[in-house]
Design a protein that fits this description.
Elements lengths: L4 H13 L16 E7 L5 H14 L3 E8 L7 H5 L4 E5 L11 H8 L3 E6 L7 H9 L2 E7 L9 E3 L8 H19 L1
Parallel strand pairs: 1-2, 1-4, 2-3, 4-5, 5-6
Helix pairs in contact: 2-6
């Protein structure tokens, strides 16, 4: 993936043309049947977040798909992510020169709509993650503040660079369970 002015210009054009199929209704964790979450392997706590969410969703009998992106030149710690079943690893070989995922990669996310879509990529903007988040069909979208506005139903405000993915995952699960408790 080439990182230059032309690349960023093409990425912005593709994101503008991508229609975000978003219905926007709250679904509590106890009612969710299908959940997807997107994580950047380069962020601290990413493997712990994936393992934590896998345990929570498996315990609650929720079908889930983890999308882990490692777009670094030399992927590291992929063993930590492969221990979780139903994980989709996206590496540099799965994207084109400006970061657009291949069709076979997209088909796993586009097969069925998700009840909840969680974005755990909070440190840096990743075109691949933004594209997947816009293309996936989900009823309830959760992400962090400071990311593209208008695509999330709920945002979690963190400490910026000091907000690891595992703590973000725990906070999101806490909010999903506590909001349902108060909504009754």
């Amino acid at each position: 993936m080439i990182n230059c002015f032309v690349t960023r210009m093409v990425q912005k054009r593709v994101l503008r043309k991508t229609v975000c199929s978003h219905r926007g209704r709250y679904i509590p964790l106890s009612s969710a049947r299908r959940i997807a979450y997107v994580v950047n392997a380069a962020e601290p706590g990413a493997a712990e977040a994936v393992n934590y969410l896998h345990k929570i969703f498996s315990k609650n009998s929720i079908e889930h798909l983890a999308v882990c992106m490692d777009l670094r030149k030399e992927p590291q710690d992929t063993e930590a992510f492969t221990s979780v079943p139903d994980i989709l690893m996206i590496v540099r070989e799965n994207v084109n020169w400006y970061g657009l995922p291949q069709e076979d990669t997209m088909s796993a996310i586009m097969r069925q709509p998700f009840d909840i879509l969680i974005d755990l990529t909070c440190r840096e903007e990743l075109f691949t993650a933004d594209y997947l988040l816009r293309k996936a069909s989900a009823s309830f979208r959760i992400g962090t503040s400071g990311r593209p506005s208008g695509i999330y139903d709920m945002t979690v405000t963190g400490d910026g660079q000091d907000y690891p993915a595992d703590r973000l995952a725990k906070d999101i699960i806490h909010y999903l369970t506590s909001i349902h408790t108060y909504a009754k």
